[in-house]
Amino acid sequence: MKKTKSFISCATLTLALMVLLSASAMAAETYVIRVASIQPETHPDLALIKTVFEPYVEEHSNGRIKVEIYANAQMGGDREYIEGIQLGTLQWAATTTSVLGNFEPGFNVVEMPYLFTSREAAFKALDGKLGKELDKRLPKLGMINLGYIENGFRHVTNNKRPINSAMDLKGLKIRTMEVPAHISFFKRLGANPTPMNFGELYTALQQGTVDGQENPLVLISDCKLNEVQKYCSLTGHIFSVCVNMFSKKFYDSLPDDLKKVIDEAAARYVAEHRMAMERGEIEVRQALEKQGMKINDLLDKDKKAFVEAGVATLNEYSDKIGNDIVELAKSYINN
């Protein structure tokens, strides 16, 4: 009888020990979030991951979540990032809607010129019904959205002359992204749009292969395009939006407590990023002017031709984007 009790006691102890070891192993399991960007580590996209997102998730997950950052296009460009998230080699990348639109056409609506003329209007739409409708289309691609952020308004730079009206664009060879709507827009204004990989742009400007390009001020500064461009005209023709694409498979694999940590950290990151970009544009403009770049604003009356070209471009691409998404976006224009 004593031997039976001893056997049961030993078995119970062994089982308890196994449970404890199993729980300890589960608690010690770590998850690695690999983040990729074309930006340098000094850009808000990555700087705020390092100073806001990473410390929060590491602290509140008790070290169970680790973050690895791959800057300066080490892992390719936006298209490669989306494919990497789908394959599981990446967990997170802030990709532009211009590239995401190749995977889900609805996101191309954000690339329409003069759809949004203020940050407030853009984020009201993206945090509202428009953004929620677009987000619904991501899980089929194996992704979820951790929040919309920005690169800023896109402006035209060139080495020939200030752009004070649409007439000043005529004949200028302007590098654009490989986005059909962007190309169509600049053709309507009389420019000669030239799609080109961003990695080739600095040299192309330096050698005069193209006269100019269009990008947000922060990127112009970070990539030192002002070294090879004399004039910057604040056309503000497109509000450049980025989507924080996150692996759905990875997110779904997390225990609920860590999902909550990711959600909270992402919300803090998005809020800080938006404030940093708004502050940064003012500071960057002053810095660029101090470094010798000639920056000019456009009068509202001179923007009329730009806006009309934007409306025509939106009408041209409505069917391809999806009329339901276009109408939803339009509802925010004067809202």
The count of DSSP E runs of length 2 or more, i.e. the number of strands, is 9
List SSEs in N-to-C order.
Answer: HEHEHEHHHEEHEHEHEHHEHH
Largest sheet: 9 strands, mixed
Strand content: 15-25%
Radius of gyration: 24 Å
Instruction: Kindly state the percentage of residues in helix.
Output: 40-55%
Quote the average pLDDT: 91
- Poorly predicted tracts of residues: 19-25
Count of DSSP-assigned helices: 13
Outline: globular
Distance between the termini: 83 Å
Structure report:
With 335 residues, the protein is an alpha/beta fold. Helix content is 48%, strand content 20%. The chain contains 13 helices and nine strands. Strands 1, 2, 3, 4, 5, 6, 7, 8 and 9 form a nine-stranded mixed beta sheet that branches. Helix 7 runs antiparallel to helix 12. The chain is globular. Mean pLDDT is 91; it is low at 19-25.
